[in-house]
Every structure is written in C-alpha cells, then in structure tokens.
Amino acid sequence: MASNKTNKGPKLRNYLLIKPNEASFIQFIRLLFFPNLNKIRFIEVSEEEGQKLRDSFFFRLIVAASAFVQKLLLTIRVPMAKIGDLLDKNIASGDDKYLGALTVMAAKLAYESAAFVTNVVQLKWKMQFLGFYNYWNDYLGTLSTPVFLFQDAKINAKLVVVAFRGTHPFSADGWSTDIDLSYYEIENVGKVHRGFAKALGIIQNDNTMPSQLLEQGKDGIDLKPYAYYEIVKLLKGILLLNPKAKFIVTGHSLGGALSAMFAAALAIHGETELLGKLQGIYTYGQPRIGDQQFRTYMEQKLSKFNWSYKRYVYSFDIVPRVPFDDDNFLYKHFGKCLHFDRNYTGQVLEEAPDKNYFSLKWFFPKLINAVRELIRSFTLPRSQGPDYKENWFQILFRVVGLLVPGLSAHGPQDYVNLTRLGTVPALVGPDEPIKVLIRP
C-alpha cells in the first residue's frame, strides 16, 4: 500500500464504484426502494456521494440500469472480425483531410495483433514503427490496454502517433467499461470515469494517484506497466531525439476515451512540456469521460495550450451518448463535436443531436437510419468502388443494429468513410476559425 507522503499530486475526494458481478435481482430492488447502502454489495461509494444516491431515485435507477447491462454483457463473448489496413492514396499529406484519414486508420488498426500492426505500418504505410505495447488495466485486472506508436515523416518533422485500442463489438469487458457509471472525484479537476482512469493507470487499485513514474516501486507499490506512465516515458525519449516533432493521440470508442483521458492526465500531472508538443487529439465514437467541472477544466487547458481536440461522432452512434447525460446528471463531453449524418455530411456542433441515447423521441429516426445504413452497405461499393465493400461480419453487425438502433453506427467502417467521403474540418488550433471542405 502506498504511503500518502509520497503522493504529491491531487487527491481523490469522492467516488462511486459499481461491481456488476455482485449484483442480483434482490440487490437491485434494495437499491431502488430500500437504499441502505451497507446492505448493497455491488456498490462502493463515499459518504457524500452515498447521500446523493439515497436522495435521488432517478440517480439510483440509472446506476441500477448500468449495473444490469454490464452484468448482461458479461455473458457475451464474440470475437471481432479483421479490418482494413490501407490508407487512402487520394489524400496527400498536405490535404486538410490527411490527419483525419491517418488517425482513423491508426485507430482502426489498433484492434489488430502486434505482428499485423507492425507489418502494416512498416511495409504498407512505409512509416517508422515505434512499438506495440499492452499495459496493465487495474479495472479488469489484466494486461488489456493495447496501444501502438509510429512516426510519420511526411509532415511536421516526424509526427508521432499514439493509437489506443477501442471496444471490440460484443466484447463484454469493453462495453462494460464504456457504460459503467462508476467514478472518482479528483481535487480541483472534477469527476472522472472509473474504468477509463484505471485502464490508463492514473488511479490504481489501492485508490492512489502516483504523481511521478519514479514513485512506482516505493512503499510497496507494485511495478505493473501502467499505460499513462509508460507512454509518457516513451514520448519524452522520442521527442528528445527529435525536438521539432509533435505527437497526436487517437482512438476509436474506448480508445478515444483513453486518448482524451491521456491529455487530461498530462494536465493533471503538470506535464507542460509534453502538452506543448501535443498537436491534437482525434477521437472517433468516444464515450463521455467526466462531469461538468471536468469539462470546464479541459476546455481551459484547450485554450491555454496550442493543441486541437477533434471529436468525431457519426450519425446516431450509441457510444458517444453513454454514460447518461442530462442537465442534472454526471457525464458530459467537452470541446466541439464534429457530427456527420448518414450521408457523411459534417457539421461543427456544441453537442450531437440526441445526446441521450435513451430519449424515446429519437427511437424511430434511429431505426429508419439503421435500415438505410444496411441498404447502403450494398449500394456504396457500387457507387464508390470495392474499397467500400463490407464483409459478412460488418453486414451482420448492421442487421443487429436493427434490433439496437445506433449500435451498428458505432463500427469503425463509417468513421473511415466519413473521413474520405464527408465534409472534414481543416486542421486548425483551438482558437482559430474552422473551415469546412465541401464534398463534391
């Protein structure tokens, strides 16, 4: 157990932790109608947050729903199909679409094995491969936070790209992380999602926040490889050898959440030198990662440092709309939303339409959209060429999307398509006007 004396960084204030494995029908009834938190095994909560839970039936209902869905997902074990690996040859490095096209393919490639990723980066993309790593995830208790790094010498004197792996379709662990409502409150920062913070390693199983890599190993702290600290060490070494280089962090789904959380962790730990080298965060189908205070904190950092945050949201994608958000509830997005409709027409918005997935007024629009997306999976290859042909797994995923509208919209394929066929905001800083390239 770490001594509090060695922790120089911000302290945790409050927390709400959900343990779906320990939930049962009786436990759900107790939470909803007899909220004696001492007898509810699947929740661990601080006193202040516990009082909020006792006072609000709506809060208890949302927590119960989150635990129920997580428990249901634990029974689902279906592997993800292989995905494409070719960059669009029609988008050159000087094109405003280039960084979107590069990062979405990196986010997509992150789902593959280390050998496959190495082969693609070196032999097909002709770029410098910097390594594939799988870091310790305290949330799941396994080595299950994969990330790879590479350098693109075509722009910015070797741009370094850090790509986190996202949520596999039908992966119980990944989807459980996305929809989990558990959180920690970090002093002067706000509340952050428990699963994402632990997957990155900025909060560890003994609920400590080590502020420096060197503190690992002191006072009995184990030496598991935590993603945040290891990646910081790698980036400092890489950028030391090439002082003119900058880096981008990217990911799809869970990978997008880890990308945004990584930038937040740099700010929390005062890594101003690395923040100065951060060119941008590009996320695709990213879930929410913090509360209103956290959103304010991150938007202040966006205005202070010269890096951009591009949060792509396609159509009625379910994941950017979870965990739950309304005017009074916890999780919020920060920064602008780059929203694309079914025709891949893009807009820069404060928030995507239907910010709450469970809103009934959007059910039929989502269902109609899912039907049209299934039809498009057969027509798009005819109009745009064989690169847009979807495999049997992707088509099956579209069919499943008819039962759960918005689910199939989360697939990486549509995010690849929108960077190629849609309107894409140009690469600009956070305070510069955003221009839009109109699709011919």
The total of beta strands comes to 14
Q: What integer is the average pLDDT?
A: 81
Helix content: 25-40%
What is the fold named in CATH at topology level of the largest domain? Rossmann fold
Order of helices and strands: EHEHHHHEEEHEEHHEHHEHEEEHHHEE
List the strand order in the largest sheet: 3-4-5-8-9-10-11-12
Q: Radius of gyration, Cα only, in angstroms?
A: 21 Å
Unreliable stretches covering 5 or more consecutive residues: 1-7, 75-83, 212-221, 426-440
What class do helices, strands and sheet pairing give?
alpha/beta
What is the general shape? globular
- Terminal CA distance reads 60 Å
CATH superfamily of the largest domain: Alpha/Beta hydrolase fold, catalytic domain
Fold and architecture overview:
This is Fungal lipase-type domain-containing protein. One of its GO terms (biological process) is lipid metabolic process. Pfam families: Lipase_3. One of its GO terms (molecular function) is triacylglycerol lipase activity. It contains 14 helices and 14 strands. The termini are far apart. Helix 1 runs antiparallel to helix 3 and helix 7 crosses helix 9. The relative contact order is 0.12. The protein folds into two domains: 70 residues, no CATH class; 330 residues, Alpha/Beta hydrolase fold, catalytic domain (Rossmann fold). Strand 9, helix 11 and strand 10 form a beta-alpha-beta unit. It has 440 residues and is an alpha/beta fold. The chain has an eight-stranded mixed beta sheet with strand order 3-4-5-8-9-10-11-12, sandwiched between helices.
